[in-house]
């Protein structure tokens, strides 16, 4: 389905973040996943790359509260993707390009079985097996992180495909589900019972919408804290921040049954060893994937 854009009088809010130049693409992907309508880099070279060691990354939002902007800044700072203080908000009248980022969100093949699709790029039924043998997974970008374009999400999806290709796990828990992409993929890969949790109601709203777009059942979303879960599971995923993964290590290890698997993502490659130190023993590393400076870990007992 084509998306037509014309000039309008709509107003938006913009904030400019100081980002280390090598991290611009990753920071922009996170900002869009957390609710930005689009991003642009100020002062680029002819090759399209930022000039200098630090780039000014402008993000625009339909509306964003100062407290939410500060929370996003804090997340980027934890990932060492940002320099400087919380940016100031300013208003922008839409000249017709405030949603042009949608043109860049094209169907994205991941692994051997899956293609991530934005809702405006497909007129086919959700979860359809296409001519290339891939299953379509529709994701509407929103405040829930995870469109598949960031290497942390892609790495977790590839790990899920590998785990589920023989006998899919019976039950699973997705911790910090964001957009719901991992939980939805679990159901598409044959996991019978999936619970997805997040502490952000806006993210859960986005995740529920994505599950509906894919006509997925057998999937429960909840604001419950991971510490409240007691029963061991065949599969647990957590694609969040390294600092949170380290804090949650005792709980996540406890939730994985004897033959189960634990997928960890959101880990900068330089933080991989620090995270592993907190999980083993009792867990051991089954496989590891590094993509564009981000690590995905698969652990078992």
3D architecture notes:
The chain is an alpha/beta fold. The protein folds into two domains: 11-102, 2-Layer Sandwich (Alpha-Beta Plaits), CATH 3.30.70; 105-300, Vaccinia Virus protein VP39 (Rossmann fold), CATH 3.40.50.150. It is 26% helix and 29% strand. The chain has helices at residues 24-33, 66-78, 151-164, 181-188, 201-213, 242-255, 272-277, and strands at residues 11-20, 38-42, 54-61, 90-93, 108-110, 114-117, 135-138, 171-175, 193-197, 219-222, 233-239, 256-268, 284-291, 294-300. Strand 9, helix 5 and strand 10 form a beta-alpha-beta unit. Helix 3 runs parallel beside helix 4 (181-188). The longest helix is centred in the middle third of the chain and has 14 residues, at 151-164. Mean pLDDT is 84; it is low at 1-7.
Enumerate the spans where pLDDT stays under 50 for 5 or more consecutive residues: 1-7
| CATH-defined superfamily of the largest domain | Vaccinia Virus protein VP39
Largest sheet, if any?
A: 7 strands, mixed
> Can you give the helix content as a percent range?
25-40%
Q: Provide mean pLDDT, rounded.
A: 84
* Strand arrangement across the biggest beta sheet: 10-9-8-11-12-14-13
Beta-strand percentage range:
25-35%
Elements, N to C (H/E)? EHEEHEEEEHEHEHEEHEHEE
CATH topology of the largest domain: Rossmann fold
Q: How many domain modules?
A: 2
**Class by SSE composition:** alpha/beta
End-to-end separation in angstroms reads: 47 Å
């Amino acid at each position: 389905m084509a998306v037509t854009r014309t000039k309008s009088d709509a107003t938006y809010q913009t904030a400019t973040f100081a980002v280390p130049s090598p991290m611009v693409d990753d920071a922009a992907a996170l900002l869009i996943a957390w609710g930005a309508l689009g991003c642009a880099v100020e002062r680029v070279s002819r090759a399209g790359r930022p000039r200098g060691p630090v780039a000014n990354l402008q993000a625009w939002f339909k509306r964003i509260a100062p407290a939410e902007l500060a929370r996003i800044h804090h997340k980027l700072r934890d990932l060492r993707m940002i320099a400087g203080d919380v940016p100031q908000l300013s208003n922008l009248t839409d000249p017709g390009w405030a949603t042009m980022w949608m043109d860049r969100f094209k169907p994205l093949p991941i692994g051997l079985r899956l293609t991530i699709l934005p809702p405006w790029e497909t007129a086919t039924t959700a979860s359809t097996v296409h001519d290339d043998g891939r299953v379509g997974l529709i994701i509407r970008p929103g405040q829930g992180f995870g469109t598949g374009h960031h290497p942390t999400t892609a790495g977790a999806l590839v790990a899920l495909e590998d785990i589920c290709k023989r006998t899919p796990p019976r039950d699973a828990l997705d911790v910090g589900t964001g957009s719901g992409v991992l939980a939805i993929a679990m159901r598409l890969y044959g996991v019978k019972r999936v619970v997805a949790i997040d502490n952000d109601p806006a993210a859960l709203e986005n995740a529920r919408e994505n599950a509906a777009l894919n006509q997925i059942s057998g999937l429960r979303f909840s604001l419950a804290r991971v510490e409240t879960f007691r029963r061991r599971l065949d599969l647990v995923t957590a694609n969040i921040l390294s600092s949170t993964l380290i804090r949650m290590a005792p709980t996540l290890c406890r939730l994985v049954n004897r033959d189960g698997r634990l997928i960890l993502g959101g880990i900068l490659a330089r933080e991989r060893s620090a995270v592993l130190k907190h999980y083993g023993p009792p867990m051991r590393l089954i496989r590891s994937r590094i993509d564009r400076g981000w690590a995905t870990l698969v652990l078992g007992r």
